[in-house]
């Protein structure tokens, strides 16, 4: 099992409500140390419910839709492989994914079993100008008149065209090679833009774009779906998820009143201290398993990037996600 001090998952915390009785204690705030300009910021986010509610998915309701096919096919003993698209995509680094069928819980994964070299059409758009500003409007097709596959392609390629030369980014995972890649051969066959008779220009959001379509080479992984039974009850899968997800567990009884106050403050707003830390904060970091942060030069000595890490905690019977990051503000 990976080290509890190494974060393996990312999860969007839900809710920012304050802890009540569970984190109750002394209301006196702890003072920040003024001995340094850099501060370690501790933010704590409670969330309700069980881990299985977050990690056990209903494949009939998820997207992409081929996940259910991958699950059913593999469960029936037949190998299921995909090219370029990964079955059961994780929601973060090493984020576990599970599904339930007829009372049994299954762990879902995908293995890379090969590689294929293929060609796909790539659509890129280049802005010509607004329809009401152009002196000469070139022959074009309207976005709304295109088949669904082309409408999607134009929408994605538009993001790339809009971002070109600007400081803004593009949707991660949608824009590829500065445009849109037609990966599905059947969908590409329904396209009105691909081919010699495809339109040279398209209008989208009252702007005319020049259409560029090329066929380019891709080296794509071949994935095989992997489905393994792991639990037969809700309590059993919850125990498995705790082992896979949690970085730390503490109880109210093992914390001092000052340590509980740090936790309470961290739920209300980011809690911060400069090195050397207060006795309560230092002790809490130890209890959470983060001894490395007690080093005043942690970023250099321990080779860590705390800003990228989110951790998970069980405090008594409730779950939390939390972050530790440095700031000079």
Order of helices and strands: EHEHEEEEHEHEEHEHEHHEE
Which secondary-structure class do the elements indicate? alpha+beta
Total beta-strand segments: 13
Task: Report the radius of gyration as a whole number of Å.
Answer: 26 Å
What portion of the residues fall into strands of 2 or more residues?
A: 25-35%
Helix content: 10-25%
Major β-sheet profile: 8 strands, mixed
Question: What can you see in these coordinates?
Answer:
The chain is of the alpha+beta class. It has three domains: 51-112 and 223-240, no CATH class; 117-221, no CATH class; 249-328, no CATH class. It is built from eight helices and 13 strands. The protein has helices spanning 52-55, 66-75, 148-163, 185-189, 234-245, 257-268, 279-287, 298-301; strands at residues 39-47, 56-57, 81-83, 97-101, 104-130, 141-142, 180-181, 201-204, 207-231, 248-250, 271-274, 310-315, 318-327. Strands 2, 3, 4, 5, 6, 7, 8 and 9 form an eight-stranded mixed beta sheet that branches. A five-stranded mixed beta sheet has the order 10-12-13-1-11. A hairpin with a 2-residue loop joins strand 12 (310-315) and strand 13. It is flat.
What labels describe this entry?
8 helices, disordered N terminus, single chain, 13 strands, alpha+beta, 31% strand, 3 domains, 329 residues
């Amino acid at each position: 099992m990976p080290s509890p001090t190494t974060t393996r998952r990312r999860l969007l915390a839900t809710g920012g409500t304050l802890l009540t009785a569970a984190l109750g204690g002394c209301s006196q705030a702890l003072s920040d140390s003024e001995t340094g300009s850099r501060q370690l910021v501790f933010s704590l986010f409670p969330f309700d419910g069980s881990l299985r509610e977050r990690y056990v998915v209903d494949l009939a309701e998820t997207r992409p839709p081929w996940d259910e096919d991958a699950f059913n096919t593999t469960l029936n003993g037949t190998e299921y492989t995909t090219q370029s698209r990964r079955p059961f995509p994780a929601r973060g680094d090493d984020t576990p994914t599970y599904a339930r069928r007829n009372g049994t819980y299954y762990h879902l994964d995908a293995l890379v079993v090969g590689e294929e070299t293929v060609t796909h059409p790539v659509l890129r758009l280049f802005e010509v100008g607004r329809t009401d500003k152009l002196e000469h409007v070139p022959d074009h097709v309207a976005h709304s008149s295109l088949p669904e596959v082309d409408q999607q392609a134009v929408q994605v390629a538009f993001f790339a065209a809009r971002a070109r030369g600007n400081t803004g980014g593009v949707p991660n995972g949608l824009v590829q090679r500065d445009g849109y890649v037609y990966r599905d051969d059947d969908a590409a066959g329904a396209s009105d833009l691909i081919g010699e008779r495809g339109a040279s220009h398209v209008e989208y959001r009252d702007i005319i774009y020049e259409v560029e379509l090329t066929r380019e080479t891709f080296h794509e992984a071949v994935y095989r779906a992997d489905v393994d039974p792991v639990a037969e009850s809700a309590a059993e899968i919850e125990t498995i998820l705790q082992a896979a997800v949690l970085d730390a567990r503490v109880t109210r009884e093992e914390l001092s009143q000052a340590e509980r106050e740090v936790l309470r403050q961290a739920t209300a707003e980011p809690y911060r201290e400069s090195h050397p830390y207060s006795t309560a904060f230092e002790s809490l970091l130890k209890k959470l398993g983060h001894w490395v942060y007690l080093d005043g030069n942690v970023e250099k000595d321990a080779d860590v990037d705390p800003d990228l890490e989110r951790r998970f905690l069980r405090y008594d019977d409730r779950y939390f996600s939390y972050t530790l990051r440095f700031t000079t503000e």
